[in-house]
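Summary of Year 1 activities. Much of the first year was spent building the evaluation harness for sequence design. The harness presents a backbone, in tokenized form, and records the residue chosen at every position. We chose the following record to illustrate the format because it has been used consistently in internal testing since the harness was completed.
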């Protein structure tokens, strides 16, 4: 009986002192065409470095300040919204914050979205290892003939 009371007390204590926990839920990333049409930047590149993002002060935090890591990429092919040969993309740690687990030295096809003047991505986008991006690369290979600013909707 005493063990039950102690266990119940522990559970109540944990419930009272728990912080809010967010879980990652993705609705699907769509087709390459849909994802390209909604992205702010799309590029193929290799991760060259990573750093921790400065956390906003408690008073300045919002639900959308979820990207604690920044990854610098050497851009090999820019498809949309990328000027220059290097770009920085922010993401979470993974797990509950949907962050993408980039690895330094690895090549990726990245779909990035602008948030508060930063480019961000997550596992909920079509961002993927370059070796797994055949469908996307086939679509992106058809784009050079399209005029700038053209958007196509539909299925």
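For this record, the design step produced the sequence shown next.
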């Amino acid at each position: 009986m005493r063990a039950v009371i102690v266990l119940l007390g522990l559970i109540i204590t944990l419930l009272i002192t728990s912080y809010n926990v967010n879980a990652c839920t993705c609705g699907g990333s769509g087709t390459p065409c849909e994802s390209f049409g909604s992205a702010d930047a799309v590029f193929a590149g290799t991760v060259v470095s990573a750093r921790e993002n400065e956390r906003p002060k408690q008073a300045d935090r919002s639900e959308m300040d979820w990207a604690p890591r920044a990854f610098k990429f050497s851009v090999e092919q820019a498809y949309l919204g990328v000027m220059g040969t290097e770009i920085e993309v922010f993401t979470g740690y993974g797990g509950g914050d949907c962050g993408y687990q980039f690895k330094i030295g690895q090549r990726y096809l990245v779909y990035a979205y602008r948030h508060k003047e930063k480019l961000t991505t997550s596992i909920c986008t079509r961002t993927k290892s370059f070796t797994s991006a055949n469908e996307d690369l086939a679509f992106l290979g058809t784009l050079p003939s399209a005029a700038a600013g053209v958007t196509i909707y539909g299925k």
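The chain has a mean pLDDT of 81. Quantitative recovery figures across the full test set are reported in Table 2.
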